[in-house]
Amino acid sequence: MSSNIKKSRRFLNTKFGFFVLIVALFWLKTYFAYNVDFTLGAKGGIQNFLLAINPIPAALLIFGIALYFKGKLAYWLMLIIDLIESIWLFANIVYYREFSDFLSFGVIKGSGDVQNNLGKSLAEIIHPLDFIVFLDIIVLIILLLFKFIKVDHSPFKKKNAFAMTILSFVLIFAEFGIANANRSGLLTRTFDNNYIVKYLGLNEYAAFNGYQTYKESKTRSEAKPSDIKPVLDYLKKNRSSPNMEYFGKAKGKNVFVIHLESFQQFLINYKVDGKEVTPNLNKFYGNKNTLSFDNFYHQVSQGKTSDAEMMLENSLFGLPQGSAMVSYGTQNTYQAAPAILSQRGYSTAAFHGDVPSFWNRDNTYKSWGYQYFFDSDYYTEKPSYSVGYGLKDKIFFKDSAKYIQKLPQPFYAKLITLTNHYPYELDKQNISFPATKTGDDTVDPYVQTAHYLDQAFGEFVNYLNKTGLMKNSMIVLYGDHYGISNNHRPAIAQLLHKKNITSYDLAQFQKVPFMIHMNGLKGGIDHTYGGEIDVLPTLLHLLGIKDDNTIQFGNDLLSPNRSQVVAFRNGDLVSPKYTIIGGTVYNTENGSVINPNPSQQKEIKSMQNHVTTELSLSDKVILGDLLRFYNPKGFTKVNKKDFNYKYSSAMKQLDKIDKDKKSSLLSKLRKNNTDNLYTTNAPELKK
Ligand code: GP9
Ligand code: MN
């Protein structure tokens, strides 16, 4: 026994021994913080394995630098590296407690603008126990000072130090390989900082975030004020005038924007075994006061939901790669719907049952001017309440009413649903619809979660009717993107009752619902061709806001003289006449391939030019952060510091405003709550 102790002391007295000890301690405390201070949501063997080992490869690399140095210097270096690493860990622990997200260089850099009011509350959010992350450093210093561990003066072979560097790189790549196999697109699509830490670790996250911030500031610093000129010239030519029959029809109304997750147009009036998948949405679609668009396409790329949100609220396209909300949401200047409307007396709120960091919503929403963001922290969480990414839709809508009833009216409220998300999981007690029988396991449960979403929507509509909100609100519904990807051709063929699926069919399969409902609105099925980019101008015109100054790439779907060329993010397009996919031209009416004659070629060329121009100009606006150079009349630049999405601040603010304005639903109804007006059959909520 004692010889073992001797042996290990001898080992610790070597430089390599000290290196192993300091890395092991660093690993332990990081893993401890992963479990205690962060909610990383590791599920399954692979994710838990990666979470446990992911601090090691980067630690070997960084602490390993010290191995190249001699004597005491090497020890000091290891301690200094440990200190820097621990400060990074400490800062993240504290920041995470407040924001459920990791620190980004964008946040650190923008100390004035986007620091999220951190300074003010720092003292309140630090716990004494947080300092434990520095304990190992203190202990190691004491052990060295009192010579319990002796400094090894003999040189560590450069060859071995180099081998350690190589080994750590090999491990980092291996780690990335396993991570990417488990979550493809981890770094290209970016998603959520929590994911990068969960899979790769805090150091890798810092490196990746640093690289992204570098890239982002480079494009920003290269841009100049005159770059906005071609954008303005383009918009001047392409803006369409409002339809006076509809202009201002919704003036002063509340606006509900309901995001139907992964919901495709083909589901509308679709039947399985003779039963409607979405009876409530179908009724809404056919209502005489609903404007329903049946040639409306999603235009997202890798950023999926976040691309849809970017288009809907800014009329700017997502980027060809990654998510603009993640890379350009924190720092950029925007002129988004919430900002435009709040400057006209609206209160603005987003509701979503997922963590606030996903798609960087917590930061981006501030840039867009959202006053409130009711994220998963605002909802009661129980394991049975969630599936997949978060709260089940019935519970989400029901619990959102708690906050809707307090919002000062008129309000702009966006509710993002979640349950109808790949892989379309739902627990047995909530399944009340037959799956399709294509034999494709990914596709078949899609109608079941869509049916569940429809029921949740139906319950919410009941609530709107009972509370009277329906009467003074405009309800906007949209599907964000496809639910069934193009990889499922045979199943798609069966669903659409077709023998073969062509690229033309797949393009038409990208239609998603877009509906606008309001009491007294002249409804009907509108066949105009459009997409997500067109939503903002449409809504603004309905609200009576003629806003020719802000930069919007879409045009009002109700406008009589609009261009009906719909750009897909990859440059393909659909128009009433032609559908152009990968260079092949189809007749949009019947899907037949066209060999264009010279005059058709000219027409096609001009459509393609239109699409590439609008996509590239929109990209320039985001990549160069061009809106910072542009101050349209009637618009005040958003100050991100105005917003704080902490539960307690939001509640305080809502109460305060309502005391003055008495415009919330509760005040109008003279009630303390509207619980008894919300009926849900969610089994989880049964008493
Ligand atoms: C997560 C949700 C899903 O919060 O919005 O995003 P998606 O995977 O559809 O892009
Ligand atoms: Mn989505």
TrEMBL record:
Keywords: Cell membrane, Membrane, Transmembrane, Transmembrane helix. It comes from the Bacteria. Pathway: Cell wall biogenesis; lipoteichoic acid biosynthesis. It is a multi-pass membrane protein. It is found in: Cell membrane. The keyword Lyase does not apply. InterPro entries: Alkaline_phosphatase_core_sf (IPR017850), LtaS-like (IPR012160), OpgB/LTA_synthase_biosynth (IPR050448), Sulfatase_N (IPR000917). The chain crosses the membrane at residues 12-34, 46-69, 76-96, 131-149, 161-179. Its main location: membrane. It holds the Pfam family Sulfatase. The keyword Membrane applies. Residues 253-545 form the Sulfatase N-terminal domain. PANTHER family: LIPOTEICHOIC ACID SYNTHASE (PTHR47371), PHOSPHOGLYCEROL TRANSFERASE I (PTHR47371:SF3). Belongs to the LTA synthase family. This is LTA synthase family protein. It comes from Apilactobacillus apisilvae.
